[in-house]
Structure formats: C-alpha cells, structure tokens
Write a structure and sequence with these properties.
The chain is 31% helix and 29% strand. It is an alpha+beta fold. Strand 4 and strand 5 form a beta hairpin. The relative contact order is 0.21.
C-alpha cells in the first residue's frame, strides 16, 4: 500500500504553538506522530517537541514494525523527556501524544491524553481512541453522552498525560490492524476535534482526493467556529492507496 500524508499545525488564537506534529518514512516503514503540550504546566511546547523529536529519532535509527518497536520508540522519548526535565528544571511538564506505526500493510497505534486517532474505512468512521479525560470517564460510565464531551465544562481535565513516568499508562493497540485501499487516518489535537464533528470529518473525506484537501476542508469549518482566543490546533491525515 501507499500512504499519502499531510499535516497542519497552527497557533490558533494563542501566541505560542505548544503542539508538535510530524512524520517519517524509511526503509518500508512509516511513523506518524502528534502531541499537544499541556499549557497549564511549564514547558508545554518543549514537552511536545521533545517527545516527538526523540521518538522519530529512534524510529530513524532503527525503522521497524512491531509492538516491541513502538514500545522502544516511546521508551527513547521517555528517557529523553526525563533528562530534559532535569536539565531545564521543568519537572511538571507534560504532553498528550498519539502515534501511528506502519509497514504499509498493517498499523499499530498508541495514545495518551486527549489527542485522538480516528480510523476511517471507505470514508466512514470505524474507530476512534478514547480520551483520558474527566468527561470521557463520565461518558464511559453512561453519565453523559459521548457527544457532550466536546462541550463539557471539565473537558480540559486530563486523567493521564505523558510526563516521563513508565509507559504503562499509555494505551497501545494490542494487535496490528490490516489496512486496505481507501482507508484513512486522522491524528489530531483537541484544538482541532473540538470544532470538527465526526460526521463532518466523514463528509469532507468522501469528497477529498488528497490528505491536503481533506485537511483544508476541515480547517475551514474550524475557522468559522473558533473563538478569537482559541487553542492551538494540529492534525495529520493519512490516506491509504494501492499501488
């Protein structure tokens, strides 16, 4: 399979972009990463960039595809994260993250926090990660509907984030998923999915012939709805095609 990829990462209504978004493809493998540094903690931008840069650095040094590879890449990011916290004296810095790993036949993914991965098959949403947040916990227990997560007063209260502790709090896909022609993935921060509803993601995907076009359509929706001081927003789109 062939992966077409594009991403956007914007400051939104803020002065500093604390999101990090990038990807790398090498030797028949691909690694796609997005993080959202926690603005309420010192070093949000640093947290996101260290996690992303060091994870992709580990991938570049030893490209591969397995659950063990993904754990090793994240462990490299964790070790660098700990060292940077000590060097900078920013012991409270944290970030969300979501990562997709592929051999262009199958995929693994992992995430922590409220940055999301959406998986679409033939233009329709087949799976999305669950946030590590207070409203997601309420939705999972049936106290609120999933649709109310976006608008809940505690939406920004996370129950988990990447802070350099062990990897046990990260949710990993247990077994790889086969990909097919027409599959698509969207990795995005909460500053993005807050303003773009899942049916709209599907609607825009169905009429888009490239990841750039898909992102552009969704960004237009976001721009119309976002308030002047809205959060940073980032999204990485992958479309799967057969050769």
């Amino acid at each position: 399979m062939k992966f077409q990829t594009a991403f956007i990462s914007k400051t939104g209504g803020r002065k500093v972009n604390e999101d990090y978004c990038s990807f790398m493809e090498s030797e028949g493998f691909g690694c796609y990463f997005l993080a959202d540094g926690l603005g309420g903690h010192k070093g949000g931008a640093l947290a996101a960039s260290i996690a992303g840069e060091k994870l992709l650095e580990a991938f570049a040094a030893a490209p591969g595809f397995s659950g063990a590879h993904l754990v090793n890449y994240l462990e490299n990011a964790r070790q660098a994260f700990i060292a940077e916290k000590k060097r900078q004296g920013k012991f409270s810095m944290k970030t969300t993250l979501v990562v997709l790993l592929s051999d262009f036949k199958k995929v693994f993914w992992a995430h922590i926090g409220d940055s999301r991965l959406y998986y679409f098959q033939s233009g329709r949403l087949a799976f999305q990660t669950k946030d590590h947040s207070v409203p997601q916990r309420l939705a999972s227990s049936g106290e609120i509907s999933a649709e109310k997560i976006r608008y809940h007063e505690d939406r920004n209260r996370l129950t988990r984030a990447f802070d350099g502790d062990d990897l046990s709090r990260i949710d990993f896909l247990k077994r790889p998923v086969d990909v097919s022609n027409g599959d698509s993935f969207l990795l995005c921060s909460d500053g993005f999915w807050e303003y773009v509803l899942e049916p709209e993601m599907e609607e825009d995907l169905l009429v888009s012939r490239s990841p750039e076009a898909w992102l552009s359509s969704m960004e237009k929706r976001l721009s119309k709805r976002a308030k002047a001081n809205h959060d940073n927003y980032s999204a990485l789109a992958v479309m799967v095609e057969s050769f």
